[in-house]
């Protein structure tokens, strides 16, 4: 095999990693380099050090250790049968790149994944080794996100959890049938087992922390930024309902911090089984909105689906508005009296606006003008609320309410 | 009208000293005119009222915000902050009134400063100067919107303790050298090197991580406004990447599907573990493997794993529960959750050694309803129990216990194939085909659900009695 330069490897192995949507560096414990006298810190809030022209944040050095892979998942650019160029970093090369980038303030840390080489265990060992060198030999205090290889020995997962801030295992496709036909070597049960071992690891660490004697050193933390996963949207026949059902199960079963939804986008040297289409970005966006409704707005999945049709979310309007239009008997609600749970259901009011409303209305009745200071989308809120100086009248029930919010129909095909 | 001149714009200590004196002197905000030093010092600039009078206490949050907001370049900032302080000393809960015009201004200005700080944390780019005394040295040029260097330097100190660095801005500079932080005067871009060897790698990374199929320029520019671009080495690649994106996508679309990589077969050397056919299950070990790929009912879709029985194959007593719960599903072992704990304690009291029993469930997969971060147990249907009986029967055939204890109605159905109430079956020994004895009792999770303490204690005693009786029957 011809040896590639670092630049050539970087080009191949970053290109191969870009289909993983996650780049988050938030939600971990606070650490800094004052005590270690090395480099690195994490401050709770993540930092996006750059943005690519695809609008995605660049927070971490997101690369694969290698894109050689024994699996043949059809949606993946690195599948065994693909003719894509291959490369492999040594653990030390990844460590050097991470530190060089970090010292120049390009990144918050490393997100390391890999194709499956030799075996799941061997691959996982290699990933853990990179994290170990960074943490132990270089006292690196920055953020580390490691991919947990489904099927790897739980002992390796446990070790990964000691070095990494976050672990993730990608589900990729939400249904058993989808995975079976698109990713023959990936077993959903194996993925779930690996996620379960991460949750068990985290819970064990928490128990150990509770039981420790006062004055004893703090026991090591286990992946303090939790675990996440990704599902590809639009590669197979799964409906939004299937995707959200899978997400709901994963959140409840494995306490995932995040589920990422990634619109399937065409890859070079694609498998013939895949749609050569434009990535369904709006569908991806609506799924994220629905996911937020599940986690922060008290919606159950079946409620969200009331605003959908045929198991698919409305692409023209957001899922909360779609739900509200089906539930007009609840509206309008009185901004000054409605409980928090109900305010959260008003289209156009986010969690932060709701918190502010609840805090401010204690000091006096809110009028329409005040609302403008608390939320950016007063126009959207109007049909659904009542204030001392505003009543929507028949607006709430008007037949063309959806048309007020949906974007006008567009010519479908446009030249680039 | 009193005139105040601030010598050091953005300096919180100076503003605070002046404001404190004015406040103590009872000088109303409309009677003060604030100026920066560059606007021409007034003769009366330093005639301050004496700082006597009672101490004024202000909300901590207001002072924290004022510390940041004073860095804002707006000419009105010192005066406006003074008005807020003046009002806060007189009006209780002023800051909670977010719809008040002054408070609204404060929060928005503070937000602008915090955004400026955040962007500086993000977009400073260090360039390597070299190495001295074992420490690498770096420098960066940055142009923040406001005078925020003193608010951002501690962040870089926490992050880059182990290297020396300097950040030069037009207003001031921060230097971290030999583990000491100092500030100095503003500088120019020319003081910082105009390149770094690693920038080629960084630009290669930037180009490779960009997905040409999902161009979203507005999203990028909202978070990384153009004003920062000239100090970001990667920004020079934005235009060429965008220009080439369409063609790259078109090429992917137009490319004919190529033949599979000939090396594929070489890489794919692994043969998936061939499990025995279900019918070939000869040992409990075989059974554990075979049940793992059971798809007889849809419960396998959402559960983590099938949980099979645990215990010696020669066990004389088999205890059958309903189905794995949340913890059992995660750990792959029966009776390790809260109900398992109740069972363990009851077994102990009844004089039964868990290690000598075979513990299993009527249904091998966890059935649940997701509810936020929790999975709520759902009873299996009679149909699901009957389908899963295939596995329970295998376990019974392999263990051949003398006595089976069923816990709850689902277990009873799993063992007998018929639905019956616990009440009607409890307290008698039933004989199963082949001579195995059956004792029916409640499921320990029933005890966890009883709100009434007295009743729970009674039921628990009856449960322990059932188990003790089973022990005698099997002896």
What does the main sheet of chain A amount to? 6 strands, parallel
* Helix percentage of chain A: 25-40%
Choose one word for the global shape of chain A: globular
Low-confidence stretches of chain A: none
The Rg value of chain A, from CA coordinates, equals: 24 Å
Count of helical stretches of chain B: 17
Structural class by SSE content of chain B: alpha/beta
Helix and strand succession of chain A? HEEEHEHEHEHHEHEHHHEHHHHEH
Largest interface: A-B, 94 and 96 residues
- Summarize model confidence as the mean pLDDT of chain B: 91
Q: How far is it from the N-terminal to the C-terminal residue of chain B, by CA? A: 102 Å
> Which term fits the overall shape of chain B?
elongated
CATH superfamily heading of the largest domain in chain A: Aldolase class I
Instruction: Provide the helix percentage of chain B.
Output: 40-55%
- How much strand of chain B? 5-15%
CATH class of the largest domain in chain A: Alpha Beta
Explain this structure.
The complex is a heterodimer of chains A (416) and B (475). Chain A has helices at 6-15, 91-103, 120-137, 154-163, 176-182, 188-211, 240-254, 281-296, 301-306, 319-326, 340-343, 351-360, 368-374, 378-381, 401-405; strands spanning 50-51, 57-58, 60-64, 109-113, 143-147, 166-168, 227-233, 258-263, 333-334, 385-386. By secondary structure, chain A is α/β, with parallel strands linked by helices. Chain A has two domains: 6-279, TIM Barrel, CATH 3.20.20; 281-410, no CATH class. In chain A, the strands form three sheets. In chain A, strands 3-4-5-6-7-8 form a six-stranded parallel beta sheet. Chain A has a two-stranded antiparallel ribbon with strand order 1-2. In chain A, helix 3 runs parallel beside helix 4, helix 4 crosses helix 6 and helix 7 (240-254) crosses helix 8. The mean pLDDT of chain A is 91. Chain B has 475 residues and is of the alpha/beta class. Chain B has four domains: 2-119, no CATH class; 124-191, no CATH class; 199-254, no CATH class; 278-474, Uracil-DNA Glycosylase, subunit E, CATH 3.40.470.10. In chain B, 41% of the residues lie in helices and 15% in strands. Chain B has 17 helices and 14 strands. Chain B has helices at residues 12-24, 60-69, 77-88, 101-123, 149-159, 199-209, 217-223, 238-254, 264-267, 284-291, 326-331, 338-349, 382-399, 408-416, 422-425, 444-449, 453-474; strands at 2-6, 32-36, 127-132, 135-141, 164-168, 172-177, 180-185, 317-321, 358-361, 368-371, 374-377, 403-407, 430-431, 437-441. In chain B, strands 3-4-5-6-7 form a five-stranded mixed beta sheet, covered by helices on one side. A five-stranded mixed beta sheet of chain B has the order 9-8-12-14-13, sandwiched between helices. Chain B has a two-stranded parallel sheet with strand order 1-2. The longest helix of chain B is centred in the first third of the chain and has 23 residues, at 101-123. Chain B is elongated.
């Amino acid at each position: 095999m011809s040896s590639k330069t670092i630049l050539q490897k970087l080009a191949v192995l970053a290109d191969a990693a870009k289909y993983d949507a996650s780049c988050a560096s938030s939600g971990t414990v606070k650490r800094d380099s004052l005590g270690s006298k090395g480099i690195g810190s994490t401050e709770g809030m993540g930092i996006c050090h750059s943005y690519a022209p695809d609008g995605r944040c660049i927070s971490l050095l997101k690369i694969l250790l290698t894109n050689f892979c024994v699996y043949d998942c059809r949606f993946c650019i690195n599948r065994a049968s693909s003719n894509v160029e291959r490369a492999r970093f040594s653990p030390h090369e990844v460590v050097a790149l991470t530190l060089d980038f970090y010292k120049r303030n390009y990144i918050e840390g490393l997100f390391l994944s890999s194709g499956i080489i030799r075996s799941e265990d061997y691959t996982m060992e290699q990933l853990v080794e990179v994290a170990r060198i960074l943490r132990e030999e270089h006292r690196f205090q920055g953020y580390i996100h490691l991919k947990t290889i489904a099927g790897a020995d739980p002992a390796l997962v446990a070790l990964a959890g000691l070095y990494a801030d976050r672990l993730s295992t990608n589900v990729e496709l939400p249904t058993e049938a989808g995975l079976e036909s698109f990713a023959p070597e990936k077993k959903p049960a194996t993925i779930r087992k690996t996620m379960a071992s991460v949750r068990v690891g985290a819970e064990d660490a928490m128990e150990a922390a509770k039981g420790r004697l006062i004055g004893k050193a703090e026991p090591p933390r286990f992946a303090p930024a939790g675990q996440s996963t990704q599902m590809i949207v639009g590669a197979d026949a799964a409906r939004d309902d299937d995707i959200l059902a899978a997400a709901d199960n994963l959140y409840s079963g494995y306490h995932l911090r995040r589920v990422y939804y990634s619109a399937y986008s065409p890859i070079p040297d694609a498998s013939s089984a895949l749609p050569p289409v434009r990535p369904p970005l709006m569908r991806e966006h609506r799924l994220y909105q629905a996911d937020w409704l599940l986690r922060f707005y008290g919606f159950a999945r079946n409620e969200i689906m009331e605003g959908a049709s045929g198991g698919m979310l409305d692409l023209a309007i957001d899922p909360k508005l779609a739900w509200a239009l089906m539930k007009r008997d609840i509206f309008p609600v009185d901004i000054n009296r409605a409980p928090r749970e109900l305010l959260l259901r008003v289209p156009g009011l986010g969690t932060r606006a709701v918190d502010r409303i609840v805090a401010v209305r204690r000091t006096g009745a809110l009028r329409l003008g005040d609302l403008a200071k608390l939320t950016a989308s007063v126009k959207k809120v109007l049909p659904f609320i009542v204030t001392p100086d505003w009543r929507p009248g028949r607006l709430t029930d008007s037949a063309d309410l959806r048309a007020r919010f949906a974007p006008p129909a567009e010519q479908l095909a446009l030249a680039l | 009208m009193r005139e105040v001149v601030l010598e050091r714009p953005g300096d919180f200590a100076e503003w605070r000293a002046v404001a404190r004196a004015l406040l103590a002197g009872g000088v109303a905000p409309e009677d003060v005119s604030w100026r920066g030093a560059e606007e021409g010092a007034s003769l009366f600039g330093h005639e301050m009222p004496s700082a006597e009078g009672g101490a004024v206490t202000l909300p901590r949050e207001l002072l924290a915000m004022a510390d940041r907001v004073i860095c804002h370049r707006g000419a009105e900032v010192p005066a406006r902050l003074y008005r807020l302080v003046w009002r806060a000393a007189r009006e209780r809960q002023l800051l909670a009134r977010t719809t008040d015009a002054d408070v609204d201004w404060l929060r928005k200005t503070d937000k602008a400063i915090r955004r400026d700080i955040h962007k500086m944390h993000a977009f400073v780019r260090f360039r390597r100067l070299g190495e001295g005394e074992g420490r690498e040295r770096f420098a960066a040029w940055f142009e923040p919107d406001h005078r925020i260097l003193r608010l951002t330097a501690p962040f870089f100190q926490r992050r880059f303790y182990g290297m020396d660095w300097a950040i030069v801005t037009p207003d001031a500079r921060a230097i971290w050298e030999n583990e000491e932080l100092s500030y100095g005067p503003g500088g120019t871009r020319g003081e910082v090197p105009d390149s770094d060897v690693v920038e080629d790698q960084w630009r290669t990374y930037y180009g490779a991580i960009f997905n040409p199929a999902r161009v979203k320029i507005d999203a990028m520019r909202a978070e990384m406004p153009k004003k920062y671009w000239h100090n970001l080495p990667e920004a020079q690649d934005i235009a060429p990447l965008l220009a080439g994106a369409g063609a790259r996508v078109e090429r992917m679309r137009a490319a004919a599907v190529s033949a599979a990589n000939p090396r594929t077969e070489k890489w794919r050397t692994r043969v998936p573990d061939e499990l025995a056919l279900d019918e070939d299950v000869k040992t409990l070990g075989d059974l554990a493997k075979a049940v793992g790929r059971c798809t007889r009912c849809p419960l396998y879709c959402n559960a983590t794993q099938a949980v099979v029985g645990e215990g010696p194959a020669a066990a004389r007593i088999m205890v059958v529960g309903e189905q794995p719960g949340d913890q059992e599903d995660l750990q792959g072992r029966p009776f390790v959750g809260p109900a398992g704990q109740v069972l363990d304690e009851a077994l102990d009291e009844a004089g039964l050694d868990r290690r000598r029993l075979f513990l299993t469930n009527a249904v091998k997969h966890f059935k649940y309803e997701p509810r936020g971060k929790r999975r709520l147990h759902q009873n299996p249907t009679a149909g699901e129990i009957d389908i899963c009986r295939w596995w329970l029967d295998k376990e019974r055939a392999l263990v051949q216990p003398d006595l089976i204890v069923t816990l709850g109605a689902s277990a009873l159905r799993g063992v007998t194939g018929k639905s019956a109430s616990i009440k009607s079956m409890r307290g008698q020994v039933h004989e199963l085909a082949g001579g195995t004895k059956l004792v029916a009792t409640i499921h320990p999770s029933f005890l966890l659900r009883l709100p009434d303490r007295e009743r729970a204690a009674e039921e628990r005693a009856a449960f322990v009695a059932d188990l003790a009786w089973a022990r005698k029957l099997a002896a």
